[in-house]
Each structure stands twice: as C-alpha cells, then as structure tokens.
Design goal:
Chain A: One of its GO terms (cellular component) is ATP-binding cassette (ABC) transporter complex. The complex is a heterodimer of chains A (about 550) and B (about 300). Chain A has about 550 residues and is of the alpha+beta class. Helices cover about 30% and strands about 20% of the residues of chain A. In chain A, helix 14 links the parallel strand 14 and strand 15. The chains are: A alpha+beta (about 550), B mainly alpha (about 300).
Chain lengths: ~550, ~300
C-alpha cells in the first residue's frame, strides 16, 4: 500500500483509543455502496505546464490590512498582494517600490526613490502613500498591534503612545511624489529589511478612507503586489491571479494560486497525496517524522528556538549552578532524534542558525559555536552538588509548566525522566491552556516553563534584546548590568563590527549564567511537489511566490 | 395565548441569564484577547484596549454589551478585525445549517426506515444486523468515522474529495459522519416504540378491520412510534449544529462550529458572546418548536 496508508489509518485509531476498530470496519463495509463517484480534482491534469499552484495555508488570514496583521498566515498572503519599499528575496534585500535609496553618513536618514509603480486600480504609488500608511499604523486610534515595528523611526513611539499629537513631527516625509525621506531615532542596520515587513507596506489612502473594512473582502482590496485577489471565500479559500499592473510582472510566472484553508493536517496530507494540492504548509505533527523519512515532506531553516525558562527570581533557580545543571542534564540529540523527529537541531546556544554577520560573512551561530556540551551529565551532577544538592538530595519540589499539546507533553515527560535519571531530582509537570499559560508565565508564577521564540527580523538582536532588564518579554526575571550595557551599546551604534562583537559577548554572558536552557532550533516543515519550483521560504517563516513556477507537472 | 406570553418571558430571562453568566465567566478566565507569546509594548496595548473599550469599567462594558446583544450588533471580532461578528455568524451558520439539515434529513429517513424494518423483522437477522450497526453508530466517535471515510473514499478509492465545501460531492462524507450517531439513536427509538405499539389493541383492531399491513404500519403504528423521535429532534438539532465542530474541522468546512472553540482559545470576546447568544437563542426557539410539533402529532398532549 502506497504512502504507508495503513499506518496513517492506524495512528488515527490509536489516537482515538483504538476501541472501535472492529466495529468501524463493519460500518465501512455497510457504507461501501454509498459513495457516489465524485470530483476528486486529480482528473484532467494539465498537459503542459499550466501556471496554477494549489496551496494550503491552514486557516483564514485574520486580516490583509498591513497595519493590523501580526500572524504568518496573513503575512504569507500579503507578500503576494502588496509590496513595501523593499522585498526580501533569495539574494537578500531587493528593491521593491523603492528603486534606489541613499543612506546618510550617520545612518540616520534614508532617502528612498520610488519607481513608477501603480496600484491595482491604476493609481500611481506615491511617497505620500507610505507617509499615510505609516502614520496610520502609528495613530493610537488605529490600534495597530505591530506599531512598535516602526519605533525605529524618529518620534514614532511618542506619537503612538499619545505623548506627541502632531504627526508632522514623526520622521517620515514625502519630499515629492516619488521621494520618501525617513529619519531614524538611532542607527538601525537592518532597517532596509524592515521596510519589507508587512506593517511597513503602503496602503491606498482613498480606499482605506472610504471603507474601514476594505481589507476584509476581495472586491474592496487594492494592492500593489505581484498578485491580485480574485476571490476570497472566508474560511474556505483565496484565489490570487497574476497582476498585470505590477512593475516586475515579467518575473512573475504563476498565473493563478488557489489557496485553501484546510486546518486538519491529515486531511491536507490526503489532498496533497491525491494531487488536489501542489504544496501544503499545514501538516499533522504526528505524521511529520514518517513524511520526512519517506521524502514526502521537506524542511527549511527557521530562526526559532525552544528553551526552558528558569524563574531566576525564585529558589532554587536563582542559582546559576542549578540552572546549568538542569540544562546540561538533558540529552538534546535524543530529544530531537527520538521524540521530535522533525528535522530540528539541538541547541547548544541561544541564537539560531541562519543569521549572517555582514562583517565576516559567516553565520552568527557558526562563528560563536557551541557554549556547552550536550548531555554533560557529569558536570551537571557536580554543579548540582556544589549548589548544595548532591544527587538531588534536599532539592525542593519544583514544577515544569507548559501549554498543552502532544509535542509539549512528550517533551515535558522526556525532561522529567532525564532530570530524574541524571540528577536524581523529581520534577512535577503541569499543563495549561494556552492563554492561561501565557498569563501565568508573564506573572512569573512558575519554577520552570516552556519558552519559545521566533525572530521578527534577520538579526541576532531579535533574540538577544529579549533579556535586557525589565524587557517586556523577559519573563524569567533575569537581570545583568553588563548584558544590558552591551545590548544598549549595540543598539546605539551603526558600526556592524561593534554590534556583532557586543552581541556575541552578550550571548556568552547569557549562556555563562544559563538564564535560559536552550533545547532545540526549529524548522519549517512543508510538502511540495517536485514540479513546484522557485518558491522562496524565509528563515522568518514566511513564503514568497513572486519567483515561483510550475515545471514538468505533465511528465 | 397566556402560555405564549409565559414562554416569551421565560425565554427572555433565560437568554439574559446566559448572557450575564457568559460575560462574567469569560472575563474571569485568565489571559485576554491580546496576550501573546510576544508581549505588546504598554502603549500599543493601551491603544488596543481603548479601541475595543476594554478600558471601560466592567459594569459599563456589561451594559454596553447587553444593549448591543439586544440590537444584535456585536461589533468587530478581536481576531478578525475586518469582519464583524454578525458577518461571521451569518456566513458560518449558513454552512453549518446546510450541513446540519442534510445530516438530520439523512438521520430521519435512514433511522426511521431501519427502525421500522428492525421492528417488523423482530428477532430475525435483519433486526440483529440493524441493531448491530446502530450500536456501532453510537459507539464510533464521528472524528474516527470521518478519518475512516476520508481514508477509504478519498485516499484509497479516490471517489470523493477529502475536504472543502461547495460541490455536492464534498457534502457526502461530512453528512454521513454527522448523521451516523442520530441515525443509530433514531433507529433504536423507532424500533422499541414500534414493537410496543404493534402489541397494542388498536393495531389488532386495525388488522381486524382488514386494513392493509402497510397502512397499519405506516399510518397507524408509525404515527405513535415516531413521537419520541420528535422529542429527540430538539436536542438532535442542537447537537448537530453545535457538535459539528470536529467534522467541520476535519473536512475543512467553513461552518460556525469552529468559532465555538477557537473564539474561546483566542479570548475573542465579541465572537464568544455572539456565537453563544446566537446558539442559545436558536436552542430556546428549537425547544418551543418541538413542543408545538409534539402537540400537532398528538392532540391529547396539552401544553
């Protein structure tokens, strides 16, 4: 049987308790005659290379308004229908609506020269569209959740928080129809890649002002990207067609994308196996190991890290030796290979692979290497003994907190067992519903908890500034003045050499103190037929179809 | 008339109680619509709270919400800022209702048919087979049945599409998955009542008067035997409409069911309230209709 079908079938049964196996078989026999021949969609395969891509994004994008979106599903669609000043492509930052740009010597002023591009309704894209879009994001009344992605711009934060009421003082101006000038608060070497981020994309002023819900329907949406929304049936599918007004339309080869929203991984996998889908970004986690092993699923790097957060304000995890002992006692190789089986990499440091250092040209992670040895049980035991708990004796009762799902539960049980076996410590497990977990973690009501972080932009800073004293995402209560100084200095300078030196040094301090215990670096798992070419998957988890095409489907 | 008035008052009080309980329970649960793995800066959070009036005192939010529920204008969803709750409920319910109606129709026709056949062939092989299948229909959870159907008819035989909604072929498997349990329940109800009715004196009288067996069974006996099925229709409609979440999710059907669960997970307050109040109103009305239908079928019943 192809595709390990029975195994797929059996897994479903085991998950359900398996009790109904025999009875189910009888029912199938009874229903055998009921099914009418249907249109499974795999008939009538195109002879040549019809440039149509059938994709699955798993769920309804919450919004396609660049100002309001915060999730990867929305980002994926908006990358196709909108374009910012720049676009992140296979070769890094590429010109988008901006054809060229000048950066002042102090790296505080960016002058973007826009190309002759038009909106999908024929209106020209002007510098004012950007000014309008960015001020709209920052306007407190818009309540844009990702407004802080623009805080690098002069006075942006003050305007967004209501301290400043005059938008003219925000550092973004249209010098003329085609020239946009942006003034920053401090040098931000990754600002050009940020201008590709959805929150900084332009919007069509007249459209937005005429209908507050313009971004909720295909008929009212006006974009400027490589594709145009032809149809949007909520919770069902979005159809995109190639835009004939896009400035770089000659590069775009796909004529149509039919993007369905199938949330159940197993159903999407069946549709992929049947040929109803050419690519699928939503898999059932339990099926991933088998699909990867058989080559039916692939992985791409993603800058994310899953760690154990220690409550550094509470005994016994206020002692770095205990934190280190707990980190070293875990066998990441076994966790990744035997439990996750999804292509993840053991994390022996905090910043993931995939972020280049522009000075050396090397990967930040490879440059710094590992900060500790995996499953270093001997050192772990020694450190725990030094902290006053030889063989775990006298260790207080502690609890590991996680949000409930199959993977997290399996991980928690593995940690528990390894800590017991390697350190002689009994750790209780507690699972919570997602938002309750977040709230509990935020309030610091835990000893140990699951932590996960996905980068927002391609720079180590997106990971390292989490742990500055009092930082909004610093849910471990850790504080180190030297660390704070290094991060502040890196943020204030435009000298990449100093920045990267400081960031390496900061990571060393973080790992020395083991404020968090890194476990593994994540990956993006997807299915894609061999005839789908040119899809660009970023390490930030988004997918770009501008360069995608179909080749050899008929063969 | 007096009865109708009483029912109306009770209905309004019931809905108010549900609205109040839901509102305060929802707010008592930790975590809000904007809590996320990535913490929002305080200024951004303040802007969001101001926009959705979460900065108002609770009593004012409660009164505002009661008013908006009464006029059925529940505002935008927190998760889907460009869609109003009214849109979400309308679009989703249209699909859920179509799927539910199909499932109920299948369950009624198949359930009554199988039940009658089982009663007529009491203690013989058709009866045993029907009751075996009914036991199975009750004991197999619908997500297992859904998976099994997809495996057999979509993956293996490739007769039917694995998911999505809109074409007739796409409705076959979800309808069967959703109809299995009510079909089994109805078949058992009809069978046991039919057996009882067939033993009663008036059936003997009918037979003695020389009525055809078909007329005796389908006109006289069935009319009595089907009464419990009508009682069951209220909870059945409720169960099918609110319980279709799993089936809708497996077959990627854009129904309202998923919002029932998803809105709670997201703490999408306006959708939680909208879906809860919509279903509550629907159930209350369904119960009243069942009472009326009961009276129509059996005039001896006084309401």
């Amino acid at each position: 049987m192809a595709y390990g079908g029975w195994r797929w079938f059996w897994r479903r049964f085991r998950r359900a308790g398996g009790a109904a196996l025999v009875s189910a078989v009888v029912v199938v026999a009874a229903l055998g005659g009921c099914g009418a021949p249907g249109s499974s969609g795999d008939g009538g395969a195109a002879g040549g290379d019809e440039q149509v891509l059938n994709d699955n994004i798993g769920s309804e994008p919450p919004t396609l308004d660049p100002a309001l979106m915060t999730d990867l599903t929305s980002f994926q669609i908006v990358n196709s229908v909108m374009e910012g000043l720049t676009r992140i492509g296979p070769d890094g930052v590429e010109p988008g609506m901006a054809e060229t740009w000048d950066i002042s010597d102090d790296q505080l002023t960016y002058t973007f020269h826009l190309r002759d591009a038009v909106w999908q309704n024929g209106d020209p894209v002007t510098a004012n569209d950007f000014v309008y879009a960015w001020l709209r994001v920052l306007n407190p009344e818009t309540a844009a959740p990702y407004a802080y992605q623009l805080y690098y711009i002069k006075n942006a934060e003050a305007y967004n928080s209501g301290e400043l009421t005059d938008p003219a003082q925000v550092g973004v101006k249209a010098l003329d129809e085609k020239t946009l000038q942006v003034t920053l608060e401090a040098p931000t070497p990754y600002f050009l890649s940020l201008t590709a981020f959805p929150t900084l994309m332009p919007v069509h002023q007249a459209t937005v002002e005429s209908n507050p819900n313009w971004a909720g329907e295909a008929t009212t949406y006006v974009g400027n990207g490589p594709f145009k929304i032809a149809e949007w049936v909520h919770d069902s599918h979005i159809d995109l067609v190639k835009s004939d007004t896009y400035w770089d339309k000659d590069t775009v080869r796909l004529e149509k994308m039919h993007i369905v929203m199938v949330n159940e991984g197993s159903t999407a996998e069946t549709m992929f196996a049947n040929g109803d889908l050419d690519s699928n970004g939503n898999l059932n986690p339990q099926d991933v190991p088998q699909l990867l092993a058989s080559g039916e699923a692939k992985t791409s790097p993603m800058i994310s890290v899953t760690s154990i957060y220690f409550n550094t304000k509470k005994e016994p995890f206020d002692d770095p030796r205990v934190r280190k002992a707990f980190t070293l006692a875990l066998d990441r190789k076994a966790i990744v290979e035997q439990i996750l089986k999804g292509g993840q990499k053991p994390a022996l440091a905090f910043v993931p692979f995939g972020i280049p250092n522009p000075v050396s040209g090397k990967d930040f992670r490879e440059e710094a290497g590992d900060y500790f040895t995996d499953a270093d049980v001997e050192t772990a035991r020694r450190l725990l003994a030094e902290a006053g708990y030889p063989n775990g004796q006298g260790f207080p009762k502690v609890t590991y907190l996680y949000n409930d799902n199959d993977t997290n539960r399996a991980l928690a049980e593995a940690y528990q067992q390894m800590w017991k076996q390697n350190l002689g410590v009994q750790v209780e497990l507690q699972s919570m519903e997602w938002k309750v977990f977040l709230e509990t973690q935020r309030q610091g009501n835990y000893d140990l908890s699951r932590g996960n972080w996905v980068g927002d932009y391609l720079d180590p800073m997106t990971f390292l500034d989490l742990w500055v004293t009092g930082g909004g995402n610093n849910r471990i209560g850790w504080s180190n003045p030297e660390y704070d100084r290094l991060i502040a200095e890196a943020k204030a300078t435009s000298d990449q050499e100093i920045r990267f030196r400081n960031m390496h040094e900061a990571e060393r301090i973080l790992m020395d103190e083991m404020a968090i215990g890194p476990i593994f670096f994540g990956v993006n798992v997807y299915q894609e037929k061999p005839y789908v070419k040119g899809v660009f998957r970023t390490a930030l988890g988004t997918t770009d179809y501008k360069w995608a095409y179909i080749e050899g489907k008929g063969q | 008339m007096q009865y109708a008035g009483q029912r109306l008052v009770v209905t309004i009080i019931t809905l108010w109680a549900i609205a109040t309980l839901t509102f305060f329970m929802m707010r008592a649960v930790p975590g809000g619509p904007f809590s996320a793995e990535k913490e929002l800066p305080p200024a951004v959070l303040a802007n969001l709270e101001a926009r959705y009036h979460l900065d108002w005192p609770l009593w004012r939010q409660y009164l505002d919400y009661l008013y908006r529920t009464a006029v059925w204008d529940l505002g935008p969803s927190f998760t889907y800022p460009n869609r109003t709750v009214n849109d979400i409920v309308r679009d989703g319910f249209r699909v859920s209702a179509a799927l539910g109606a199909l499932a109920i129709a299948v369950a009624l026709v198949a359930g009554i048919g199988v039940g009658v056949a089982a009663a007529l062939y009491h203690a013989r092989w058709p009866d045993r087979l029907a009751m075996f299948a009914a036991t199975m229909g009750i004991s197999i959870p619908n997500f297992i049945l859904s998976g099994l159907l997809i495996y057999v008819f979509a993956y293996h035989l490739r007769w039917l599409p694995a998911g999505l909604w809109g074409k007739p072929a796409q409705a076959v498997m979800p309808t069967l998955a959703l109809a299995a349990l009510p079909t089994a329940v109805i078949a058992r109800l009809v069978r046991s009542n039919m057996l009882e009715v067939l033993r009663q004196d008036f059936i003997t009288v009918c037979q003695a008067k020389g009525l055809s067996p078909a007329r005796v069974v389908f006109v006289h006996a069935l009319r009595s035997a089907v009464l419990p099925v009508i009682t069951y229709l209220g909870p059945l409609a409720a169960g099918v409409l609110t319980g279709s979440f799993v089936v809708e999710n497996i077959f990627a059907i854009p129904g309202l069911g998923k919002y029932f669960v998803q809105s709670v997970t997201n703490r999408d307050y306006s959708v939680i309230m909208g879906v809860t109040m919509f279903y509550s109103a629907l159930l209350v009305v369904a119960n009243v209709l069942v009472d009326l239908a009961y009276r129509l079928v059996d005039p001896r019943i006084r309401l």
